[in-house]
Structure formats: C-alpha cells, structure tokens
Design goal:
Length: 202
C-alpha cells in the first residue's frame, strides 16, 4: 500500500463573497450539493466540502487524482477497476484513457446525476452502480485488478468502509497481486486519522 498525505480539502467560502457563482444546487441525503465555478475552475461541493475540483476542460486539480493515475503503471496487465465513491467522476475518466474497465459504486444518485450533468462523466464506457459500497462488496462476486476507495460522508470517511472487516472484503474482491488505493484526507503524516487507517490496514 502506497500512501501520500496531500492536505485537507478546504471548506469552500461563500461564492458571493469571492467572485464565484453557483451554477447548480440541489438537496440530497448526503447534504446540499452545489456546483460552483470561477473563470477557469469548476467545483463539486457537498455541504461546503470540496469533493471535486477541475478545470473547465475537465482536468483534475487535486494531486491525489493524478496519483491514482499511476496505478496502471504499477500493474501494466491490469484490466478492471472497482471504484467506491464517484464524486465528479475524475477517476473514471482517468482510467478510461488506459482502456481499463471500470465499475463505479456511488451511494447517492444525486451525486451521479450531477457528475454527468456538470463534470463530463460519460453516459457509457463504464458501469455505474447506485448502491452503498459495503453492501456492493458483499453481493458482488467479480474480482478486479484495481480497487479505489474514495468515499466520504461530507468531509469524513464513512466508518463502515474503513473497518477491518471492510478492508478484508475489499481484499477478497482483488485478484492476486491486485492493488488497493485509499484516498484519505489528512493534515500530514502526524494526523491521527493517518495512523488509524494504517493500523486498520495492517
């Protein structure tokens, strides 16, 4: 497991006070979903927490998104990916460039609809499943070369996806030699959350 803390995703300031404009807003059980844009960038926010940030041309801004793009180089023969947590769909689009078959599991249908309407998520070329990630792990029998856990409840990782049992289920969905990547938002290596996740994985 490779791990690079990349800093805390900031809570977004009020757009009216900072020259940004809200181009879409809707309620969901995850919280209030907003799509906000500036002159060059577009953001997906859930209850003020930035989930996705990309250029209007569709290129990711958060470094972790590009870090995930290194996974195919670590397993060049990898053919398929299970992704838990969709956000704006950056990882789906990134892996499609490598011809990797992707199944994306997103618990909130409003997030999936927003990704398609405002962040260029394609209508085809991958499988989108609207379901809880843990429940899907239990009923899915397919195995994968890559598994990416990028799920957040607002600004917090969902506890039921970060347990010993959940990681064991993820391991069971990987082929021998398969790779698990976990996006954890921490404030440096000394952040207690980083130590907790490392201890759970070990």
């Amino acid at each position: 497991l490779g791990w690079i803390p990349l800093g805390m995703a900031p809570s977004f300031p009020l757009p009216a006070e900072n020259g940004f404009r809200v181009i879409a807003e809707r309620p969901s059980f995850s919280g209030t979903i907003r799509v906000v844009e500036s002159e060059r960038l577009r953001y997906l926010l859930i209850d003020g927490s930035v989930q996705t940030m990309q250029t209007k041309g569709g290129y990711p801004i958060f470094p972790y998104a590009w870090t995930l793009g290194l996974l195919p180089y670590l397993r060049p023969d990898g053919k398929d990916l299970l992704m838990i947590g969709l956000g704006g769909g950056e990882t789906v689009k990134l892996f499609s460039r490598y011809g990797i078959r992707t199944t994306a599991v997103e618990v909130d249908p409003a997030v999936a609809e927003t990704a398609r309407a405002h962040f260029g998520l394609p209508e085809e070329g991958f499988q989108l499943v609207v379901d809880d990630g843990r429940r899907y792990l239990r009923r899915d029998q397919q195995v994968y070369d890559f598994l990416v856990l990028d799920a957040y409840a607002g600004s917090c990782p969902p506890a039921h996806l970060f347990s010993i049992e959940a990681f064991a289920e993820m391991k069971g969905r990987l082929r021998p030699g398969g790779l698990l990547a976990v996006n954890v938002v921490v404030q440096g290596y000394r952040d207690p959350l980083a130590a907790d996740v490392a201890a759970t994985l070990s």
